[in-house]
Amino acid sequence: MRKARGRRSRADLRMTAADSASSFAAMRTFLLASTILMAATSAFAQTNPQPASPPAATAPASSILTVERVFANPSLSGPVAKGVSLSPDGELLAFLRSREDDVDVLDLWAAPVKGGEPFKLIDARALVPDAGELSEAEKARRERMRISARGVVEYSWDEQGRYILAPLEGDIFLANRADGSVRRLTETSADEIDAKVSPKGSFVSFVRDQDLVVLDLASGAEQAITNDGDGLITWATAEFIAQEELDRDTGYWWSPDERFIALQRTDESTVDIIPRLDITGGGASVIQQRYPRAGRPNAVVELYVQDVQAGKRVKVDLGANADIYLARVNWAKDGRTLYVQRLSRDQKTLELLSVDPATGASRVIATQRSDAWVPLSHSFKALADGNFIWSSEESGWNHLYLYNRDGRRLRAITQGNYPVKSLAGVNPTTGEVFFTASMRDGKEYPIEQQLFRASYKRTGAPTEVTPRGGWWSASVNDTGTAYVGNYTDVNTPSQSALYSIDGTRVRWIEENKLQPGHPFWPFAERQQKPTFGTLQSHGETLMWQMTTPPDFDPSRTYPVVMQVYGGPSGGGVKNAWQGATNQLLTEAGYIVFRLDNRGEGDRSAAFKQALYLKMGQPEIEDQVIAADYLRSLPYVDDSRIAMMGWSYGGFMSLMALTEPRMGLASALAGAPPTEWSLYDTAYTERYMSTPQANVEGYAASDVLGRLDNLTGRLLLLHGMADDNVIFENTTRVLDGLQAKSIPFETMLYPGQRHGVRGNERQLHLWRTYLDFLDRTIGTRAPEKAD
Question: Which InterPro entries would you find in this protein's record (predicted)?
Fold first, then answer.
């Protein structure tokens, strides 16, 4: 799609009445309220801000969205740029884009900052026309990273911006920016994973067959940094727990001067073997998976520093207790200090170690503690003067602080009743930090997100970089002079552009304008915009959103689908573009409702920690409040309410269907963890402690003991190769229901892991959803006798 060159001012992105809501307290009502629902919620005071960007063209002819069109090419989301980054010299933008002929394959594109059309740098199909099968290790790694696409799924620049390194289907390619050539660096039967260009661009490093290898770009010669990776010993790769639960996807780190590489060694011999069936359409195999369940041993992780020049390696002193988590690793700007974040097994203590890379000697320079758990972040930022920035939640809200090189806190950079979401960048010249937050005028405002700036040299209130309204994510360049911004709101599909740090748009990356020619345009007129509101629970304000069917008539009654995740996450209620699957539900005649209960969302420590030691209890209490609210609305059929969710949302659906106060007619539960002692250590113990220490909490959250309380019909779904929420979670419920002679429905997906991938299977999944809903709460649902 051709890109518009016109320049749009910041005011054009601003919600016209956004300034009328000055604090979170003003949100105790509908935000973006539709006039249809206002009368039904007169107890709330409304703010009613307007769409962030008005329609750019007249309304299209009305077309009903079908499930077949949702899961077909091209994607209804339009041309959405993924993984956007700015070259180190600020002259070129790189990004990933789905192919028009196959949305599941990504190519690497680039666009000149100063103008000119984007062009394709790496054509995945041209370089590897027939993608083979990935190794089991790479499949597992991509599952942990939630990468479902093929082709170019990740890439990286060298610090000079001369090259772009791109792993592709198990091998590594290097794009030369100067002449546009693409050089194949490896062509082996093994997968080369986690490839990186060294900071000065002299080397490319990667992991092959569980060992770290460094390739000299000038000579093409390879050097094996380790050579004993095999079986249960792996070098330079983040272990399962780090990838899945600690948000750490790498296991090695170059020093800025290229002299050292910090790398981890993982020994999985201590981890229990959990045999699991990997069932595909062609048969079944038994995978002897090393899976660390709650209360059981983790892998032993050690950290070393390799002197690349001298060929020597030293072990980092991580302390006498080996039963810890290697949470984060960062280098000082001068490469003389290695910073390591060590997290205790119970996750109540996070310590920052200062390590001498020449000897491996370490000392604790800063400590964070919590009575529940200390959250991890990617906010650590080493500065050129030796100081560093790091975040802490000790005030009850996540905020940024400045420390000196010895770990002494110098000042708070941010403060107030809102959480900092992420550190987006730093301008070392002006002494500013840039961060994202859901905040207005110093108060939490959960349904929107903006980019802010604040000084780390002096105390002062943050100022807005992006305009209010909608949901912004941003990545600031190394000099803090520009940022790549991604924006969306309920009227605007995801857009990406390059901006100067004052908010002026430099150029579009993907404008993705909703207009004739956009894939979603034929269905836009029938898209219903969500209404937002709040409910109260135990002194906390819960956010919700509701979307009604087309041609909604408040004098009629409608069935409701409550969508849920419910667990620790970023939350789902936000002023953002709604997925096409929501429209499938509204077209089928359902009101779609979502509540972010306590425990869900990047909010205060108290809000998140409400579920500590009792997962499935406060979350269901809040969902009961939501169900009661729905039944108070005159246009809701209180006998036809269903809930649907996947993963933690599947657990919530089962818990809700077995909670009499919910009164659900049906529930759709996908890949549910049904007994938390079957799940992994870091996630489960963070929120529930161990099964040995919290017997009561684990028992209360076991779905099996609640089956006699089913209030309606159940559809259970699971991937038959799931290595995250292992299939046993579902089979134990199947067995329990059968033992009680309770009718239920099941849909299993051979070969699928924790998610159902690909258009064909997604189409089947949603046909199954819609059929089940229609039979239980929809047009084919049996009428209840008066």
Answer: AB_hydrolase_fold, Pept_S9_AS, Peptidase_S9_cat, Peptidase_S9B_N, Serine_Prot_S9B/DPPIV
Active site residues: 647, 722, 754
Could you list the residue range(s) of the whole structural domain that residue 548 is in? 538-776
Question: Within 10 A of 287 (CB to CB), how many other CB atoms are there?
Answer: 15
Shared-domain flag, residues 594 and 487: no
In-domain check, residue 16: no
The number of folded domains in the chain is: 3
> By C-alpha distance, which of 533, 544, 538, 603 is closest to 568?
603
pLDDT digits 0-9 by tens, 174-192: 988 888 888 999 989 898 9
Cα 286 to Cα 279: distance, rounded to the nearest angstrom: 9
Q: Are residues 573 and 638 in the same domain?
A: yes
Over the range 183-196, which residues count as b (16 or more CB within 10 Å of their CB) and which as e? eebbeeeebbbbbb
DSSP state of 442: T
Rounded CA gap, 726 and 476, in Å? 39
Please state which of the ranges 12-26, 211-225, 280-294, 444-458 shows the lowest mean pLDDT: 12-26
**pLDDT at residue 116, as a whole number:** 85
Please tell me the distance from the alpha carbon of residue 542 to that of residue 603, in angstroms, as a whole number: 11
Residue 97 lies in a domain: yes
Last residue of a domain, one of 224, 248, 263: 224
Domain end call among 224, 254, 287: 224
Residue with token string 């993924």: 82
* Digit-coded pLDDT (tens) for 560-613: 999 999 999 878 999 999 999 999 999 999 999 999 999 999 999 999 999 999
